[in-house]
Amino acid sequence: MSVIGIDFGNDSCFVATVKNGGVETLDNDYSLRATPSFVAFAGRKRIIGAAAKNQYGSNRENTVIGFKRLLGRKFDDPHVQHELKMIPTKIEVRSDNDINICVHYLGQTHFFTPEQVTAMLLTKLKETSSQALEAQVSDCVIACPIYFTNAERQALLDAAKIAGLNVLRLLNETTAIALSYGFYKQALPSDNPRNVIFVDCGDSSLQVCACAFTKGKLKMLASNWDQVGGRDFNVAMADYFAKEFKQRYKIEIENNSRQWLRLLGEVDKMKKQMSTNNTNLPLDIECFIDDIDVSSSMHRYQMEILCDSLLRRAEDTLNRLLIESKLSLKEIHSVEIVGGSTRIPAIKELIERVFGLTVCTTLNQDEAVSRGAALQCALMSPALRVRKFETTDIQNYAVEVTWTGEGSCIGSSVEIFPAFHEAPTSRLLTLSRKEPFTLTLRYSQSIPYPDPIIGHWTIKEIKPNNRGEYKDIKVKVKINQHGLVVITGATLSHKNDDPERRSTSLQYTSTEQEKLSTIEDFNGRKNPKPSQANTSTNKQTNKEMDNESKRSSKHMDLPIEFQTHGICQKELKNLRLFEERMSANDASETKRIDAKNALEEYVYEMRSKLLGGHLDQHIFPIERDNICTELNDVENWLYEDGVDTDYDAYVDKLYLLKERINPINARANDYELCPLAFDELERSISFARTVMADFKKGLDKYAHFTEAESINISDKIDKTQKWFDRNKARFVEAARTSDCPVNVTQIRYEADRLISYVNSAINRSKLNRNIPKISSATANTDPSETGQRQLQQHNKRF
């Protein structure tokens, strides 16, 4: 079983694995490490990755891009409406306000959700990884942006389930980068942590985090982000040139999506050149619109002026991180940068100015995220043994819980997880209730998502006791390994309640222990944690209370109904089956197209060989014309009735053509290879004659030859020479349009037989020299006497 880490980017994806004691980034089917995040639909199959990007210019309406930023969102989301301007595919709204991506597939219009399209890309990554590793791939860790909310994380998990992947963890991209940095650092301190800033500026977002490293551990401190990236620089530059071309050449680009995409591609190349050139760079596009050639130029400083607002947003993001991490500049050890857009000189200068340090590029700027995800997958997978490394992540948003029902103040709530709380973790919320009630989880701060509600959980089957009193309900709220905030269970405690002690309490829990955090009553007062001086007393008191509680209470799990983000299990199962059917159809269509291409290639190849090629002299003109007619008929059939037929039809056509042409190919091969085989046989005869000549000269190396052997070898040479002369003459005189009178196999058989006979006689002397000589003393010894002497020597030793 192999494990992989996936960096799912808006522009491209990377996949890495742990093998041979290290981390290796896998190549895709184009021998490239980066797989474009493109999914296209062409005719009867899907095209995904590099192939989809290659045909993007001619099939834009059926090529889906930028779908990562649509995951888990509604159609009327302002963020979605902004993204739709950059996506050429038709997007429609569903009845439930979800997103429908419209494409032409299998001869009709199909509608896919962003989760389905993401699953298609993940399926492709899974297949290429399996081919590269020559093993089945199931377990994986997928990296996601730190700003993803519950809705987006759940959508990504649903996409992975549709693709048949077992996601061990959704890992924040910044955490993956930090793990990639710290795992191989052997000189980390044991006590005072090393604080490192990581800046990841990619195609569509800027993410920055602060991380503290100690030996074998990393702890995320804080993070910040802004959805500004390399594509925003491209758009700013393209807008500038579009206005210039409109003024100079009187051409409109804004409403021409094809030429707009072409312009974006050209300015992206210019932007990359600016990273290494501080000169005025030209922009020349031939036949841009209406056969008009356009040209312009731009200097790096002009680009920086155009993108000044973007650079200010990036600077604000970095400054906010300094505030939230509570680190002074002196406490920062280094600043590591990753992501393609950090190659922009202005971004580098900005980072160095804010943090007062020269940026470090010790990490692979493109592959650091996937490598960190692969390490995390190896750490979690039972199939691999990896050196222990502890990772403490954070929940980036503050989360509060509100509850309803009799027994609490109306609108009661508590912040259950503050911003940058460590994760995974869980907390216990104890409420006194005597009837069912509903808990709501929501983000209590500004988030890049229009709806702050995470979900609603209704705790059922709660009734008052015989005296009509309240019961204690313990609710477990958890941040799981995927960064999802969920309610995982509710427990009813049967005990004699003291009304004066009834309250709403909140506790941290972990896998090892439960740590009392705060107790908040209905008036909002919070009791602090016990002081260190009273720790032993509190432990003893808590132990006595626990023992008393165990004797006087019973616990029962309560049923929970919930309403939150994500696809229901039944629908997920149906989508998984649909994805499997599409994958099977893709494989079948690929097989069909390969058969069609093989037939077409064979027609072209054989026709060129028959008409003036090396087969021309080995076939009668009438037969050649007949075969060429058949080839032409097949070619016409391929472009007419056979343009979209089934696999078997192509295979049958190819079989009939090969049945007709293979004998001609075999004839041509014999006439081409026989001269070489005759030369080989002639050299074998010459070698044998040389051996016999040396024997007759009395050379020592042939002194072991007997007279009978020399006669037999000479006889073999004469017979082989006669066979050679006879068949060489037949070969020379044969018409090239008839079958060769002798084939290559026969000639090589004669050569091998002669050489084998001669070598067996030569090698007999080597065998004789290797036989050990037996001395006369040993030969005359009675075996029984030898055995007795050995037994006596053995007894003396013991």
TrEMBL record:
Keyword line: ATP-binding, Nucleotide-binding
Stretches of Basic and acidic residues bias are at: 494-503, 512-524, 541-554
Renumbered to this chain, region (Disordered) spans 494-554, 774-798
Task: Supply the PROSITE patterns for this chain.
Answer: HSP70_3
Gene Ontology molecular function:
ATP binding; ATP-dependent protein folding chaperone
Which PANTHER family does this UniProt record tie to the protein? HSC70CB, ISOFORM G (PTHR45639:SF4), HSC70CB, ISOFORM G-RELATED (PTHR45639)
Classify the source by domain of life.
Answer: Eukaryota
**One GO term describing the cellular component:** cytosol
Q: Where is the composition biased (Polar residues)?
A: 529-540
Which Pfam families does UniProt cross-reference here?
HSP70
Q: Which residues form a coiled coil?
A: none
Record's InterPro entries? ATPase_NBD (IPR043129), Heat_shock_70_CS (IPR018181), HSP70_C_sf (IPR029048), HSP70_peptide-bd_sf (IPR029047), Hsp_70_fam (IPR013126)
Its recorded name reads Uncharacterized protein
**Family according to the record:** Belongs to the heat shock protein 70 family.
